[in-house]
């Protein structure tokens, strides 16, 4: 089917900051390696709603999809798609809101077009509530599209915290607002605090005693490797604990009795590897329990709302089966924390002694081997 020739949409391009050189370079390499994975969305008049850079870098050879929308609906679609992918600074976000207001859009319409909350749009418009809207002692007005390179963040933090330089002087150097510099400093401190916490936690894990008892029931929830880098401004989805590699998890010495039931929790990403780990630990797969959470989470391909737990056995453990289902419905709690309903079920059908490997809280009838201490039933032993 013939479609109109794609062409830049000046209205949308004027509202969105261009990709940085690094971002555009990464996208170019990806297109050269994989091709254009997602079609460029255009209107019936050829205006590009989404995918201008993909279209440009592909030399106009990217696949095209025509969307049948009026101009305002198309503007909202283009903005939301780009905002979901872009790492925009606070200044860029605020300037986008102000520019839409200058175009005559109501606050309600701005919120609808961008997906931002109505209260955020109101705060940005009220100049007295935005400390980021002021730059001092800069010869030129701040460029709201400037991104401060990440490799400069530590230097800025040192200038503020160690050298006690005023914010306005650093802001003038980068032609950004004082608020942006303050944000960089705050976020860098969060990263430093997180690094210190992870190092302390890893040290506690390294000093856990070796388990010598043999358990008839073991629940294991290992720290699967994701390699996600913590970003306090844009992405906080990195794991809040030291991760283990797949080889490290596979090499664990599981204190299992000759007759033992193993419940191994596995994330959607690592489900395939989990079956190999079960075999490496000397167990035989029997069935799979799926935890369906009541709320949806994050995810790169599909947004996660389930976790899986492999039931495997060694020898001939005794399980008091009644009518337990392979589906467990329970609310999501803190990161990685498993529902109490799961432990209630396992306690009912599996024999003692029971071990919660990588556990985080004491439970009657369970030994806990977790970060920093082992709790055996109601007896607490500190490893310090």
Question: Mind explaining what this structure looks like?
Answer:
This protein has 384 residues and is α/β, with parallel strands linked by helices. It has 3 domains: 10-129, no CATH class; 134-203, no CATH class; 209-382, 3-Layer(aba) Sandwich (Rossmann fold), CATH 3.40.50. 37% of the residues lie in helices and 17% in strands. The protein has 13 helices and 12 strands. The chain has helices at 10-15, 21-34, 52-57, 71-85, 90-102, 107-114, 118-125, 153-161, 167-174, 178-206, 246-250, 271-280, 340-349; strands spanning 40-42, 48-50, 64-66, 215-220, 256-266, 284-293, 306-314, 327-330, 354-359, 367-370, 373-376, 379-382. The protein has a 9-stranded mixed beta sheet, with helices on both faces. A 3-stranded mixed beta sheet has the order 2-1-3. Residues 127-139, 233-240 and 371-384 have low confidence and may be disordered.
How are the elements arranged and paired?
Elements: H1 10-15, H2 21-34, E1 40-42, E2 48-50, H3 52-57, E3 64-66, H4 71-85, H5 90-102, H6 107-114, H7 118-125, H8 153-161, H9 167-174, H10 178-206, E4 215-220, H11 246-250, E5 256-266, H12 271-280, E6 284-293, E7 306-314, E8 327-330, H13 340-349, E9 354-359, E10 367-370, E11 373-376, E12 379-382
Parallel strand pairs: 1-3, 4-5, 4-9, 6-8, 9-10
Antiparallel strand pairs: 1-2, 5-7, 6-7, 10-11, 11-12
């Amino acid at each position: 089917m013939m479609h109109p020739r794609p062409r830049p949409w000046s209205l949308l391009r004027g509202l969105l900051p261009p990709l940085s050189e690094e971002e555009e370079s990464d996208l170019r390499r990806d297109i050269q390696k994989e091709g254009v994975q997602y079609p460029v969305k255009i209107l019936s008049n050829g205006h590009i709603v989404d995918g201008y850079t993909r279209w440009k870098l592909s030399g106009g050879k990217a696949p095209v999809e025509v969307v049948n929308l009026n101009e305002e609906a198309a503007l909202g679609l283009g903005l939301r798609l780009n905002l979901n992918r872009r790492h925009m600074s606070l200044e860029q976000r605020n300037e986008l809101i102000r520019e839409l207001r200058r175009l005559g859009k109501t606050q309600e319409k701005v919120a609808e077009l961008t997906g931002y909350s109505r209260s955020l749009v109101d705060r940005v418009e009220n100049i007295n509530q935005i400390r980021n809207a002021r730059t001092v002692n800069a010869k030129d007005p701040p460029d709201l599209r400037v991104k401060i390179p990440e490799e400069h963040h530590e230097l800025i933090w040192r200038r503020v915290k160690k050298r006690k330089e005023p914010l306005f002087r650093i802001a003038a150097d980068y032609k950004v607002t004082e608020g942006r510099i303050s944000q960089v400093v705050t976020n860098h401190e969060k990263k430093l605090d997180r690094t210190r916490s992870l190092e302390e936690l890893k040290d506690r894990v390294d000093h856990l005693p070796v388990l010598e008892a043999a358990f008839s029931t073991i629940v294991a929830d290992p720290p699967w490797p994701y390699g996600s880098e913590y970003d306090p401004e844009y992405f906080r989805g990195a794991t809040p604990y030291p991760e283990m590699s797949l080889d490290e998890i596979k090499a664990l010495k599981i204190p299992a009795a000759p007759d033992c039931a193993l419940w191994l929790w596995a994330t959607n990403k690592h489900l395939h590897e989990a079956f190999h780990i079960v075999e490496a630990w000397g167990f035989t797969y029997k069935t799979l329990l799926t935890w369906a959470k009541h709320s949806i989470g994050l995810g790169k391909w599909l947004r996660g709302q389930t976790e899986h737990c492999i039931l495997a056995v060694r020898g001939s453990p005794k399980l008091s089966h009644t009518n337990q289902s392979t589906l467990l419905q329970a609310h999501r709690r803190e990161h990685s924390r498993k529902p109490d309903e799961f432990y209630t079920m396992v306690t009912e059908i599996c024999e003692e002694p029971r071990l919660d490997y990588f556990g985080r809280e004491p439970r009657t009838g369970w030994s806990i081997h977790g970060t920093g201490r082992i709790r055996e039933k109601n007896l607490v032993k500190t490893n310090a």
